[in-house]
Design brief:
Elements: E1 2-3, H1 9-24, E2 30-34, E3 47-52, H2 61-70, H3 72-82, E4 87-90, H4 95-107, E5 112-115, H5 121-125, H6 129-145, E6 148-151, H7 154-162, E7 171-173, H8 191-198, E8 206-210, H9 219-232, E9 237-241, H10 253-259, E10 266-269, H11 275-284, E11 287-290, H12 299-306, E12 311-314, H13 319-322, E13 329-332, H14 338-349, H15 352-367, H16 372-391
Parallel strand pairs: 1-2, 1-4, 2-3, 4-5, 5-6, 6-7, 8-9, 8-11, 9-10, 11-12, 12-13
Helix pairs in contact: 1-16, 4-6, 8-11, 9-14, 12-15
Length: 392
């Protein structure tokens, strides 16, 4: 049984792609997820229980937390009804509640595999030290309560061992897979059609910053670099698509763009981008820009590769294990250096034919290295190992 509490965004697509491939490899599977589950055009080949709460963005944070906690009773009902052999949890939404669920599952004698998509996610979401410290205490309990942890990068494995004290033998590294599932059943527009719909010139270099905005993702660094980029490549355009996280909503990006005199070069779509509209942004761009200050791994990189788009990315966290310099993208070595950010993007914008070649290589890697069949087989082997140890 898979448990994924969010129901939309990157981890939700990861969960569905993995679940579909597990079923294709012969596994019987059920998914417990949010009432706000974002359905894809192609129906899933497994049972889906949309019972979890906490995803209603019209509610206050307190209301969402209470809703999430109360609906754990529904989760327990489904677990009792399905009687699974093993639980695979995909990250946490409210970790103070999720640790209780995890311990209840273990109390019932169920082995739990837990995928750690971001080992220190609190430091990415919050700036207040007390919140980061509190969340790390709870995360540590989660990591030590699961039978086995999955990470996507070696740096995440090291962090779990050194910061959280998890024994190395309880951590398995399995690569993050491609995002081809998001492309199924939707019309993918051509580059020209996408640009016409977005009001962009057809033959200019276009960069894309995609996904939820938070301090760790460094959008402010990119905006600071824009005046120099545009001074050297006047035709350059930037798309910013995605909403701000709660702790970052007081940042006025409109004002930042106006103050730097670059507003006319930027499309700013300040909202969650539903799956059926994702393609227009990736089809329109030449490169995807990730000026991240701190990150474990990024689904945006795999989304870019799946669309055949190269990246300009900070050499931080697990990005260094996914992106290949000069093959699928370019690295920014010192992301706080706005001049280097500008220099790398200028170089990319001035060599669009080369970018297209990098994009082809990125697509090839999405098909091969990041294909889901090998990921699912490795995951099934891990399930079998956990079950053998649990039953011994």
């Amino acid at each position: 049984m898979m448990i994924e509490p969010v129901g939309f965004s990157g981890i939700r697509y990861y969960t569905e792609a993995l679940s579909r491939q597990l079923v294709a490899n012969g596994m019987s599977l059920a998914l417990i997820t949010s009432r706000h589950y974002e359905r894809l055009p192609v129906p899933p080949p497994y049972r889906v229980y949309e019972v979890m709460g906490g995803g209603d963005r019209t509610q206050s944070r307190l209301q969402r937390g209470v809703d999430y906690m109360l609906r754990q009773l529904k989760v327990a009902d489904v677990v009792r009804m399905e009687r699974p052999d093993l639980i695979h949890m995909q990250s946490a939404l409210v970790n103070t509640v999720d640790i209780l669920l995890l311990r209840w599952l273990r109390y019932r004698g169920l082995p739990v595999v837990y995928t750690v998509h971001e080992p220190s996610r609190a430091s990415l979401l919050y700036t207040a030290r007390w919140r980061i410290a509190m969340n790390r205490v709870v995360d540590r309990q989660i990591y030590h309560s699961a039978n086995q942890l999955i990470v996507h990068t070696w740096i995440d494995r090291t962090q779990l061992i050194e910061r959280y004290g998890v024994p190395a033998e309880r951590i398995t590294r399995i690569e993050h897979g491609n995002h081809f599932l998001q492309l199924e059943g939707i019309d993918i527009p051509s580059r020209d059609d996408s640009r016409i719909r977005l009001g962009l010139p057809l033959n200019v270099p276009v960069g894309l910053f995609f996904g939820d905005r938070r301090y760790s993702k460094g959008l402010d660094l990119l905006i600071d670099a824009l005046p120099r980029i545009i001074a050297e490549v006047p035709e350059f355009r930037l798309i910013i698509a995605g909403r701000a996280q709660a702790a970052y909503r007081d940042v006025d990006f409109e004002a930042m763009l106006q103050e730097r005199g670059v507003r006319d070069h930027v499309i700013l779509d300040d909202r969650y981008i539903p799956n059926e509209q994702v393609a227009i942004y990736f089809a329109a761009c030449d490169l995807v820009i990730l000026p991240y200050r701190n990150i474990s791994q990024s689904g945006v990189v795999h989304l870019a590769f799946s669309f055949g788009r190269p990246v300009v990315a900070a050499r931080v966290g697990g990005l260094a294990e996914v992106v290949e310099e000069g093959v699928t993208g370019l690295f920014i070595e010192q992301v706080e250096d706005r001049e280097e950010v500008a220099t790398k993007i200028i170089h990319a914008a001035q060599h669009r034919d080369w970018l297209a070649i990098l994009g082809q290589r990125a697509r090839q890697q999405a098909e091969s290295r990041f294909g889901w069949d090998s990921i699912a087989r490795t995951t099934l082997d891990l399930y079998a190992k956990v079950l053998r140890k649990h039953c011994a």
